[in-house]
Design a protein that fits this description.
This protein is an alpha/beta fold. It is built from 9 helices and 11 strands. It has one domain (about 1-250): Rossmann fold (3-Layer(aba) Sandwich), CATH 3.40.50.300. Helix 4 (about 110-120) packs antiparallel against helix 5 (about 135-150). The protein is globular and about 55 Å long. Keywords: ATP-binding, Nucleotide-binding, Translocase, Transport. Belongs to the ABC transporter superfamily. It comes from Sagittula marina. Part of the ABC transporter complex HmuTUV involved in hemin import. Responsible for energy coupling to the transport system.
Length: about 250
């Protein structure tokens, strides 16, 4: 079942074309890594697919009513801003708002989803801490937990592991991969090609606003794509824990 269908999506910002005729589908059970150089259009593609920026073309989620869209997809923007000095517990519970009628108090299901999201992100000891007083990496994990608590079929995450230490980068990607194995889907933009190769079931490479490659990591991360799109050489090796991928030099 398709959770997102994008057809001929194009975006122009400040009289500059950013996306050009982009089309793809995301099916249940996929962890899709969106990769490409800075300025390739990754963030704009995510925002346009969710109906958050003006665009030409079609997106199956962008046309939804706001309430339906909030139950269909959770959005984690690249810019992480926590505006209110609330506890971690309260902030993560905000992810449940799309599932509660106006004025309704959280029920047993809402608390269970929050508990699971906090456990998945290793935040048990932070529940009563004020979110705005946490470090940048800790705040990032809180916002990931909020998205998980939203319990949508699709999660769209723009550079969610940026600023996290290596252990939490790995655990976050493992959480996304598990969600995909359980039947949900994730679109995640990444600059770490090693994490992308190891944890994503599929990679989409964007280059100059167009899809340059789309497929399994082993098929997409080729010598040609590394040279032509990223301008690098890299070391690649399969291991029993998944592929190891390390950029080596600029071409």
């Amino acid at each position: 079942m398709s959770l997102l269908r994008v057809e001929h999506l194009s975006v122009t910002l400040r009289n500059r074309p950013v996306l050009r005729d982009v089309s793809f589908d995301v099916e249940e059970g996929e962890c899709v890594g969106l990769i490409g150089p800075n300025g390739a259009g990754k963030s704009t593609l995510m925002r346009a697919a969710l109906g958050l920026v003006a665009h030409e073309g079609q997106s199956s989620i962008a046309v939804m009513r706001d309430a339906d869209r909030a139950r269909a997809a959770a959005w984690m923007p690249q810019m992480r801003e926590i505006a209110w000095p609330v506890t971690v517990d309260t902030l993560v519970m905000l992810g449940r708002i799309p599932h509660m009628a106006g004025g309704q108090k959280p029920g047993a299901e809402d608390h269970a989803r929050v508990d699971a999201a906090i456990a998945a992100t290793g935040l048990e000891a932070f529940r009563q801490r004020t979110a705005t007083r946490l470090s940048g990496g800790e705040q990032a994990r809180v916002l990931i937990a909020r998205a998980l608590a939203q319990d949508t079929p699709l999660i769209v995450a723009d550079e969610p592991v940026a600023g996290l230490d290596p252990a939490h980068q790995i655990s976050t990607m493992e959480t996304f991969a598990k969600l995909a194995r359980d039947g949900r889907s994730v679109i995640v933009s990444l600059h770490d090609l090693g994490l992308a190769a190891r944890h994503c079931t599929r990679l989409i490479i964007l280059s100059e606003g167009r899809i340059a490659a789309d497929g399994a990591p082993a098929d997409v991360l080729t010598l040609d794509s590394l040279r032509d799109v990223f301008g690098i050489t890299a070391y690649f090796r399969d291991t029993d824990q998944g592929p190891v991928f390390q950029p080596l030099s600029v071409i």
